[in-house]
Each structure stands twice: as C-alpha cells, then as structure tokens.
User: What shape does this take?
Amino acid sequence: MSSLPNPAPMVTSSSQAFWNATAEGRFTLQRCTSCDVVVWFPRKHCPDCWTETLSVFDASGRGTVYSFTIIRKVANDYKAATPFVVAYVELSEGPRVMTNIVDCDPESVTVGMPVEMVFHDTGEGNALYRFRPVGN
Assistant: This one.
C-alpha cells in the first residue's frame, strides 16, 4: 500500500477561504445564521433556506465512517496507491464528506469506525483532508 497522491483541488471564490484554512491544518464548516443548518460544502447561500447569512467555524475533525469501498484497481495517478479506501465520513457536526481513510490496512475499515482528520499538503498552498482511525 503506497501513499495516495495529493493533487491540488480546484479552488473557487466560494471555496478559497476553506482551502486556505486547510493549509493551517483547519477544517471549516459553515452554519446558516437564519435556520442554524450546518453546511458542507463551502458555498455562498444556505441550501435549506437560501439566505446568504452563513458564518464559518472550525470543525472538530472527528467523525465516523458512514460507508466505504476499497479501490483495488484503477487506471490513473492513484494506480500505485491501490488498494485504498474511499469513504463517506459523518462528521461530529452532522454533514457527511467524501474522503479517504488512511494510515491503516484497508481491510480493517468498518462502518461506524471512529476517525479523525489529517491533512496532506498539496504543495500548492492548501492541503487535502483525509481521515485515519482514532488512536493511529
């Protein structure tokens, strides 16, 4: 099992502040100040009530594996990293994010496994967020 590539994300005006925070090892979420929904992914308006009154806060970086798959065969830059895990992690704050589970044997990943966030530098002024089992 090799390290995953760390490609730089596509940054937009709506996501710039989020990606800047990842370079500092922070994962930020938004909260609507009108209806209190926690928002993922970074955007300019609330997906529930459509207001543009979103505040930003630092997330805990903790969650649980909601679902996952083990990628064993791929024909792109990730080929040398197989097998690897692609997962949805349910954050402690509520939203689910698509990510990778790292720093463990892919066969050891289970639904409900507690995980914590780690950051992998892209070399482009930001970092990719991934998760590892708690305690690793």
